[in-house]
Amino acid sequence: MCGIVGYIGRDRAGSVMLDGLKRLEYRGYDSAGMAIMNGQGLETTRRTGRVAELEKALGNSPGGRLGISHTRWATHGDVTEENAHPHVSSDEKIAVVHNGVIENYLSMKKFLIEKGYTFQSETDTEALANLIAYHYAKEPEVAGKSRFLESVRKSLRHVEGAYGIAVICTDYPDELIGARKGSPLIVGIGKGENLIASDVNAITQCTQNVIYLNDGEVVHLQKEEFAITSASSKDVEAIIHQVDWDTSEAELGDFQHFMEKEIFEQPTALENGMRGRFSDDGSTAFFGGLNLSPRDLCNVDRILFIACGTAWHACLVAEYLIERYARIPVEVEYASEFRYRNAPLDKNTLVFAISQSGETIDTLAALREAKRKGYRTLSINNSVGSTIARECDGGIYQHAGPEIGVASTKAFTSQVMLAAMVALYLGRIRNLSFDQGTQIVEALKELPKQVREILGQSDHIASIAKKYAQAEDFLFLGRQLMFPIALEGALKLKEVSYIHAEGYPAAEMKHGPIALISPECPSVFLATSGGIFPKSLANMQEVKARKGPIICVASEDCDLPAEIIDDLIKVPESHDIVRPILMSIPVQLLSYYIALERGCDVDKPRNLAKSVTVE
Ligand code: G6P
């Protein structure tokens, strides 16, 4: 949430930051702003709306050797130019961009007003800018020390809440400071230039050398040097990581939207996620980074999955799969609920977080709470070096490539596939036979090809989307493993098309949502063959009897009476374990095409952000 880019170095601060902001826009797009030290002082430009508006306001190739910039997802205060970042202290010395929430900003503001500082905005960030200015004004000159750095450090000691910040000071045109607590911040080390950003994505056009800051750390950057200190002001020996992302992966290429690109990238994302993770005998999966031995895992009595949003739906699939194939009791909690609930957990509980970004604040906080209580923690995530990845005892990287579209697609199916592989792995060290294991491995290996087949039906799905695009309500219904996919289908549609949609277990429909059924409210049924199929069919009949249109996504071997289905999307027959992935593809495409029909901005849906780093 909120994107930050800071730059120090050559005479190209403005253009580098602008490029970075465009790559970070999925973190928030209410407004954007930039402050550049241009030789004559601080030049601040802010605009409401997209980064494109800021670009227009900045004009041709904004230069400068030092600057900070921001793309905002509003927390405190309306979407106005005054509330857009950077915020400048009332003495015009300090400029700050901030991601997070400063919880004690009101008392800070009161104190600062008494000291004569003035405020232009309703934001918490402006209080921090003025607080730094206040400490800076009082800070004595000490040879060999930066007054600026000392005043930032002092100010941060008074901050309650979460922050990722970048700060500049007009008296120090050769210094850039960053700090984090709770909100992500990385440092990019370039040649004759250094950067700060909230996400690796923003800086890969300049450097592949990255330092992941830890909570409480402050980085002091000059164009050729950097120094990191901990919360207790001790020097930190930084580890520089090499980012292996290819910048083109985060570009649109021939696609119209990132959501479309990422839906079509799923076969490759799945291949990358399973590569090198099957045993030589083809009967199980294994993961290099679990840091738990089979013996440790045999002692696990219960698994608790925690996540938010789409990743929470992946957890629900994991629950079905792990219980079914590994016979370990699983529970799924919203991370934000788990964190504040004093849940009694057995000491042999394993806490498993799923997070695409690895930065979602609620998931991170829940994980920390679990760690504090002494539970072992693992994660599935897509961002190498992210905070969750670093803080877990072990984990599994998705290798799905950067996901830019705000509505998660390839990250979700990749998480579900890895959950299936975890179920296989845990099952094989407990109760699954060699034959059962090889069948599952075969099914997983078939998956990318089957997903390609479904993607080949995109025109058919687009024509169905056209037919229903003007509906204002949708139901998504499925049983068992299809229930989480029904939830995900409803969420996807809601997110990108603003149509009200609800996901339900198909049988539960009779306990409420059936009241919504009408010729104007389509139901998307997710039906797979097997024991439960006749029950799903009965639910479809119930909808049809009330004249509700039915779009059915069904496995090829389902015997469906033509008269009750209005529109049918078939997916290849497969092993049960991969069905949630296959059935997800048509619902993603349906949402995408419906949103296009309605003229919605699919990659930047209103009010949403890709990475939610505030509670
Ligand atoms: C936001 C995104 C969702 C995502 C959720 C959790 O709401 O819009 O797409 O599922 O955060 O994010 P995470 O990075 O933890 O998977």
Q: Which structural class do you get from the secondary structure elements?
A: alpha/beta
* The top level CATH class name of the largest domain: Alpha Beta
Largest sheet composition: 8 strands, antiparallel
What is bound: which ligands?
Answer: 6-O-phosphono-alpha-D-glucopyranose
Annotated CATH architecture of the largest domain: 4-Layer Sandwich
Radius of gyration: 26 Å
Total beta strand runs: 24
* Arrangement of strands in the largest sheet: 3-2-4-1-10-9-11-14
Taking all residues together, what is the mean pLDDT?
93
- Proportion of helical residues: 25-40%
**Helical run tally:** 18
Overall 3D form: globular
What is the CATH topology classification name of the largest domain? Glutamine Phosphoribosylpyrophosphate, subunit 1, domain 1
Pick out its properties:
615 residues; alpha/beta; Glutamine Phosphoribosylpyrophosphate, subunit 1, domain 1; Rossmann fold; 3 domains; eight-stranded antiparallel beta sheet; 18 helices; globular; binds 6-O-phosphono-alpha-D-glucopyranose
